[in-house]
Design a protein that fits this description.
It is a single chain. This protein has 387 residues and is α/β, with parallel strands linked by helices. 39% of the residues lie in helices and 24% in strands. A nine-stranded mixed sheet has the order 9-10-8-7-6-5-4-1-11, with helices on both faces. Helix 2 runs parallel beside helix 4, helix 7 packs parallel to helix 9 and helix 14 packs antiparallel against helix 16. It is globular and about 55 Å long.
Length: 387
C-alpha cells in the first residue's frame, strides 16, 4: 500500500480533560471539575493507556510532549512531575525534548509555574484569549486581563524562556483598536510565541445554541491584517496560519503535526497517528472520550477505535496539514511521510498552481498569499482528488 523509506518523528499528546468551567466557545473534550480532581486515579489510567500503545513504537524516541486539555495546570505540580517521570521510565525522550503544558491565567495555576518548570516542563502555553475584561467576560473566561499579564510575568520569573500566549480576535463586539491593543500588550510581555486565532462558532457549543453578535467578515479581516503587521514589526515570524514565533522558537510539537509526523495520544478522547514500517500502514486510533469511563477502564481497554488510512486519506491529510505552513514543504517530505510518490496528487497540484494558490518547482511546494487566504478552497482540491 505504501513505501516508507524512514519513520517520521514521534511525539506524544496527553489529554487532561477538566476545567474550572466550560467556556461557551469550546468544542474540546473538556468537563467541569468537581471539588477534588482524581489525580492519582487518572495518572494510573494514563500509564495503563500508554503501556498498551508501547508495542507500536518500540525503539522509537519521543521528540516532544504536549500536555493539553481541558486545563492541565489544575493538576498539582507533584502530579505533573510524576507524569513526566512516568513517561521517561516507559519511553526514551530526546535529551532536549520540548515538553509543553497548557495553563490558564489565575492565581492558583500561576503559583505552580516554578514547580512545573522544576518537574521538567520547559514550555508553557497560556490561554489569555484577551487582556480586555469586557471581552473576557463575553467569552465566559474566569480570569481578568490583569491575571493574564501576571501569568506571563510569572512565567518569566519561573525560568521559562519559551512560552506561548494564546489570543483570539473577532470577539463579540470587538473593535479594531481593541484587537490591536491585545497584540501590543502580548508583545510587551516578551513571549517567544504568540498564537492568534479567529473566534469561530463550533457545533456542540453554547455559542452555537445562543450565537453572540460577532464583527462582520470585513472588520475581522482588517483586525487580522493589522495584527499581523504589528507581530511582523516585533520580529514574530508568521510560520503557520495562526502561529507567530521569535526566530528558532516555533512550536516543535505542532510542527510535527503539520508535517505529518507520528504521535501517540493518551488520555480521555486523545487521538494518535502511528506509521508502521513492518506492515507499511498508517493507523489512527482514539481513546475513550468520557473521563469517568476512561478512569474505570481496565488495562488494555482504553482504546475506543482505530482505522487504517488509505493512500488517498494519507495524501489528503498530509496536504491539509502541510499547507498551513507558510514556507510550504519539500516534495521529498511528502514522499517520506506518506510513503507515496508526488504524482499521487499531480492533478490537484496543477489545478492549484493554475489558480495561483501554490507555487511549486522541482523540489518544493509553497502556498501563495492567495492560497493562504483561501486555504479551505486550496485544501478542497486535494479532497476532490482523493475522492
Amino acid at each position: 500500500m505504501f513505501n516508507f523509506s524512514a519513520l517520521p518523528p514521534l511525539s506524544i499528546y496527553i489529554h487532561i480533560p477538566w476545567c474550572v468551567r466550560k467556556c461557551p466557545y469550546c468544542d474540546f473534550n473538556s468537563h467541569t471539575a468537581g471539588e477534588k480532581l482524581p489525580e492519582k486515579e487518572y495518572l494510573k489510567s494514563l500509564f495503563a493507556d500508554l503501556e498498551q500503545d508501547l508495542p507500536s513504537v518500540w525503539g522509537r524516541t519521543v521528540q516532544s510532549v504536549f500536555i493539553g486539555g481541558g486545563t492541565p495546570s489544575l493538576f498539582s505540580a507533584e502530579a505533573i512531575d510524576e507524569l513526566i517521570c512516568g513517561l521517561r521510565m516507559r519511553l526514551p525522550l530526546e535529551p532536549m525534548a520540548e515538553i509543553t503544558l497548557e495553563a490558564n491565567p489565575g492565581a492558583i495555576e500561576t503559583s505552580k509555574f516554578a514547580e512545573f518548570h522544576s518537574a521538567g516542563v520547559n514550555r508553557i502555553s497560556i490561554g489569555c484569549q484577551s487582556f480586555n475584561d469586557g471581552y473576557l467576560h463575553a467569552l465566559g473566561r474566569i480570569h481578568s486581563g490583569r491575571d493574564a499579564i501576571l501569568a506571563a510575568e510569572t512565567a518569566h520569573a519561573a525560568g521559562f524562556e519559551n512560552f506561548n500566549l494564546d489570543l483570539m480576535f473577532g470577539l463579540p463586539g470587538q473593535t479594531l483598536e481593541a484587537a490591536t491593543d491585545d497584540i501590543k500588550q502580548a508583545i510587551s510581555l516578551s513571549p517567544s510565541h504568540i498564537s492568534h486565532y479567529q473566534l469561530t462558532v463550533e457545533p456542540n457549543t453554547l455559542f452555537h445554541h445562543s450565537p453572540p453578535s460577532l464583527p462582520e467578515d470585513e472588520s475581522t479581516w482588517t483586525m487580522q491584517e493589522q495584527c499581523e503587521v504589528l507581530l511582523t514589526e516585533a520580529a514574530f515570524g508568521h510560520y503557520e496560519i495562526s502561529a507567530h514565533a521569535r526566530q528558532g522558537m516555533q512550536c516543535q510539537h505542532n510542527l510535527n503535526y503539520w508535517q505529518f509526523g507520528d504521535y501517540l495520544g493518551i488520555g480521555a478522547g486523545a487521538h494518535a497517528k502511528i506509521t508502521d514500517a513492518a506492515t507499511q500502514t498508517i493507523t489512527r486510533n482514539w481513546k475513550i472520550k468520557n473521563p469517568q469511563q476512561y478512569l474505570t477502564a481496565t488495562t488494555g481497554q482504553h482504546l475506543a477505535g482505530s482505522s487504517i488510512l488509505s493512500r488517498d486519506d494519507a495524501a489528503f491529510e498530509f496536504m491539509m496539514n502541510a499547507l498551513r505552513l507558510k514556507q510550504g514543504f519539500t516534495k521529498s517530505l511528502f514522499t517520506e511521510r506518506t510513503g507515496l510518490p508526488i504524482h499521487q496528487i499531480s492533478q490537484a497540484l496543477q489545478q492549484a498552481e493554475q489558480r495561483n494558490l501554490i507555487n511549486q518547482d522541482l523540489s518544493s511546494i509553497q502556498p501563495t498569499e492567495q492560497g493562504w487566504h483561501f486555504l479551505n478552497d486550496l485544501i478542497a482540491l486535494f479532497l476532490k482528488e482523493a475522492a
